[in-house]
TrEMBL record:
GO terms for molecular function: hydrolase activity. It comes from the Bacteria. This is Putative hydrolase of the HAD superfamily. SUPFAM superfamilies: HAD-like. It comes from Hymenobacter mucosus. Keywords: Hydrolase.
Amino acid sequence: MAAPLLIAFDADDTLWPNQPHFDQVEARLFEILAHCGDVVRISTQLNDVQRRNMQLFGYGAKSFMLSMIETAIQLTEGAVTGHDIQQILDMGKDLLRYPIEPLPGVVEALTELRHRGHRLMVLTKGDLFDQESKIARSGLGDLFDHVEVVSEKDEATYSRLLARYGATAADFIMIGNSLKSDILPVARLGLRAVHVPYHANWIFEYVDPAQLEGLAFHQVSDVRAVLDYLP
């Protein structure tokens, strides 16, 4: 029998859908602020605000909600109504409590990997309360041995986690949908990474293909397909 691995899974858009919910809320914001300009103008302003605010608020629904409110204030030059702000707050709250349904094949894959004796970890970035709530709502919590919610997924974070869990390049693998967060830093460290593409991607997770040149990683069609790749 092969030695057990420490297998880390990203959460949002790897284990369950997430970005489509944010896209729906963003589309609603465009409707609320339609009198301020077209979608391109509103989207550009929102992205600029988010880019600045991530340094202060981090990731997740709460940060997004605050950025939407700030965008509304800026585009209306301070004239945004209390009614519209309340709508944005309500949309943000909805992002914090929407039902979590695991993506197809996720439960099957996790159950089988546990049966094979591997240690499983959720490794996600974002707001601690929000991410823990998602894990609880997903019903997947009991399938994982470890949960790590980090502020950023970079080479330093992965190095710290390997040291904390006593893992090496031979027995660690990262699985996720984000080339920027789940694949690039892991591959740069010479660790194994499996990319599971998802149809909806956050603009801030975009990676220039040139950054991936010369880096080794595996790609599968869905989480279930990792069963054919892993021992």
